[in-house]
Specification:
Length: 245
């Protein structure tokens, strides 16, 4: 009897925890579906919440039995059951907010080259770091003739620090490459070249985001724009077929 009671209470206590978790993500736009809305509150019925980032994107993980709603400038949408939201498909939302009602914000256009130089300067030691176990001994106290190089004991005795430094260097380089892609693969330019409008524009930018090596391989802007224009046409044709337009 005790065993049955323990199983019963274990099931009751573990039931809510055992509910499947669902990840929902998407982009929130204004009523024209042309402008993204940052700082929109996304709340679930169980109290889990998040806000959209500067690009209007959100990402929230909630139990499958929950519902979510969106709130901005005191205006709240109805609740959307998670079970009715298609899995793996961005759940984009358009709110009844006019762009002229948004708060005025002063935006400085980012200068990729300046930001990159400042980042390199701040993390110069990491970017310049090169693995190896030989070092110049001239700066040490050993001044014997013939001693030009020696063993770097710090590297030999602390390989974890060596790996951490290399990992940090790799992360910084990846971030720098991502920023360079964002600099070239920007929303305004892609929209101008392809003529796509949201939500097509957002889907295209996610699906056809180029790699750093490809962007670097384009000798001229013409080559890069041609790539965007050609794949933009292919994307729009596929979009019409998928959405039966």
């Amino acid at each position: 009897m005790k065993t049955y009671l323990l199983l019963f209470f274990g099931f009751m206590l573990g039931g809510p925890v055992a509910l499947a978790q669902v990840t929902i993500k998407g982009t929130v736009y204004d009523q024209t579906q042309r402008f993204v809305l940052p700082a929109v509150s996304v709340m679930s019925s169980s109290g889990i919440g998040t806000v959209t980032d500067s690009a209007g994107r959100y990402h929230i993980r909630v139990p499958s039995g929950d519902s979510i709603s969106f709130s901005y400038l005191g205006r709240k949408t109805s609740m959307f059951p998670v079970s009715e939201i298609p899995v793996g498909v961005p759940f984009d939302m358009s709110l009844a907010v006019a762009i002229d009602s948004l708060p005025t914000v002063l935006v400085r256009e980012p200068n990729y080259r300046v930001d990159s130089l400042e980042n390199r300067k701040e993390y110069q030691k990491v970017f310049d770091y090169a693995p190896g176990y030989l070092k110049n001994m001239k700066s040490s106290n050993m001044r014997r003739p013939g001693f030009g190089v020696g063993l770097d004991l710090d590297m030999l005795l602390n390989p974890k620090a060596n790996r951490r430094m290399l990992a940090l260097q790799k992360r910084l380089e990846d971030e720098e490459q991502d920023k360079y892609i964002d600099h070239r693969w920007n929303r305004a330019m892609v929209r101008r070249v392809t003529g796509l409008e949201p939500p097509k524009l957002d889907s295209f930018m996610r699906q056809y985001r180029p790699t750093y090596s490809f962007v670097q391989s384009c000798d001229t802007d013409y080559e890069f724009y041609k790539y965007i224009q050609e794949w933009g046409r292919i994307f729009e044709e596929n979009w019409k077929v998928l959405h039966k337009e």
